[in-house]
Write a structure and sequence with these properties.
alpha+beta, about 45% helix, about 30% strand, single chain, Pantoate--beta-alanine Ligase, Chain: A,domain 2, 4 strands
Length: about 130
């Protein structure tokens, strides 16, 4: 028969503590891998958003100034946006005096080359 002092002892047995540690040891690496993957994907999404913003801005600039017809066809975004570069490609379109203008932004992320491209049409006009 148990004494009254045995009934008042509360706590975990060694087996319960070891089982809990084994469970945490199995779950923790999987959770950390998931967190690492999510952080990497977040960084990639941030870079893609920055590249799209830079590309839209540059494309609007060259279209508004008319530089797409005669200026440089590639460059970078300066020290503030180091690692990103752009390239402008002009090709003929279906209609006369209309050109397809494509701006591509390139950068390297996690050891891989990444690109974002945007295209618009430009009127060449008669001279």
């Amino acid at each position: 028969m148990r004494s009254s002092t045995d009934r008042h002892r509360r706590g975990f047995t060694l087996v319960e503590v070891l089982a809990s540690l084994a469970l945490v040891g199995a779950i923790l690496p999987v959770a950390m891998a998931g967190i690492s993957l999510a952080m990497g994907l977040g960084e990639t999404a941030r870079q893609r958003t920055e590249a799209a913003m830079l590309g839209r801005s540059k494309l609007a600039e060259v279209m508004a100034t008319g530089d797409w017809q005669s200026a440089e066809t590639k460059g970078d975004f300066g020290d503030e946006w180091a690692g990103y570069s752009w390239q402008l490609t002009i090709s003929e379109w279906e209609e006369p005096q209309v050109s397809e203008v494509t701006l591509t932004v390139d950068w390297t992320a996690r050891g891989q080359e990444r690109t974002v491209s945007m295209t618009t049409l430009g009127y060449v006009g008669s001279e």
